[in-house]
Amino acid sequence: MTLIVQQHPPLAARSLPPFVVAVLVALLLAASAADAALTTGKCLGQKRTAWITRRKCQGVEQVKLLNGKPTDLAKCQTKFQDALAKITAKAAKAGIACRYLDNSDSTITDYDTGLQWEKLTEDGSLLDKDITFTWGNLSGCPFPGCPNGTAFIELLGRFNNCVLTAGASVGGFAGHCDWRLPTLIELEAIKDFKEGVCSGASGACIDPIFGPTAANYYWSATTSATDPSYAWDVNFADGGVYNGFRKGGNAVRAVRAGL
To answer: How many domains are contained in the chain?
Structure first.
């Protein structure tokens, strides 16, 4: 007697009719085609929508709080981060850039952090990459670590030189009056560690969209906890983080909340 062994298809294949399998395959192919057709503009548009959705969610939860109802603001941030992660993954799959936008007004918007950054130049103006500023001047400082250097007085003072007209602020760099020095965490977030970029031999370790950038130390707004005569800076030649003497000269890249 001959033993006949029958090979059974996997459970999933046995449970799905052929036309259903065909539909699923078609959907997968369509999704792959959509990812392949994704452009930087469309991708940034999706991230901008995620920011708008986050704001709406926060507004709804804040209204609940005011009305004495249970609220959960944390869920807004969680959903937002999940949305950004999915969009970033699609961009990586499509092989496109999907983080920064050049606003064509000497500023760059980071769609991952929502920050708007100053774009530097090589034209000898206040935006020139080779101009350095002090964080603080030790003489005439009413308290240890006060921000009275040229970074605050000359750069931010001119950037935020606005006048109040009809209840609205007019003027300021790129039309805004809330420029500041970035925190250490914010400044570190724009370092670019692509292969060779931070070696010190191929320019500054930052995305080229930021424009001419000196491979130099850049001031943060974060002072040293142990010695207020020093403030933290980031070296965009090697990506390192250091403590700089406040009276020393460092480059500056101003920032504000943009989204």
So the answer is: 2
For residues 107 and 118, the answer to whether their CB atoms sit within 8 Å is: yes
Dist. CA 171–CA 176, nearest whole Å: 7
How far is the CA of 225 from the CAs of 144, 187, 231, 237, in angstroms?
A: 11, 18, 9, 25
CB 257 within 8 Å of CB 115: yes
C-beta separation of 205 from 236 below 8 A: yes
pLDDT number for residue 18: 62
Amino acid at residue number 24? L
Interatomic CA distance for residues 245 and 233, integer angstroms: 10
* Domain that includes residue 92, residue range: 37-98
**Is 212 inside any structural domain?**
yes
Q: What is the pTM of this model?
A: 0.81
Between CA 179 and CA 184, with CA 180 as vertex, the angle to 5 degrees is: 140
Are 134 and 186 part of one and the same domain? yes
Average pLDDT over residues 128-146: 82
Q: Does residue 119 sit in the same domain as residue 224?
A: yes
